[in-house]
Amino acid sequence: MTRRDWLRNTGLLALAGGAAWLGARRTASGMDHFTVTHTDAEWRKLLTPDQYDVLRQQGTEAPESSPLDHQFAKGRYDCAGCDLALFTSDTKFDSGTGWPSFWKPLDGAVSTASDDSLMMARTEVHCSRCGGHLGHVFNDGPKPTGLRYCMNGVALTFVPA
Catalytic residue among 79, 82, 127, 150, which? Predict the structure, then answer.
């Protein structure tokens, strides 16, 4: 290994480590108080490992991994953590991103918070009842709101109409 290779590799490792440190995930328990609460151990028992990672640890599922991305039947999308109704199929659209997307949540169903992890400014969306992380909202959606609620499918359950 040359000195140049060593310096490049060391620099890349430092950048990766810094990005990981700056992008450290918050836990949902560090957010506001919610009407549905459980201990960490209880959440781990109630949720699948993937649901726990997304809802309680602000994880993100892989794009194109959720069957809900291609679900367009009439129905409702509820929080997988507490069963609160969050979105309806009337506001769902195919964003082409690989995650279920909606242009509007049900009134009072979600709350938002600033998320500056991963060295970028985003708006996190979480369930207003249990605080579970659902995904993020972006300003590149369709009319009438112009918003794209980009949700993790594992954080949702579909209830057919």
Answer: 150
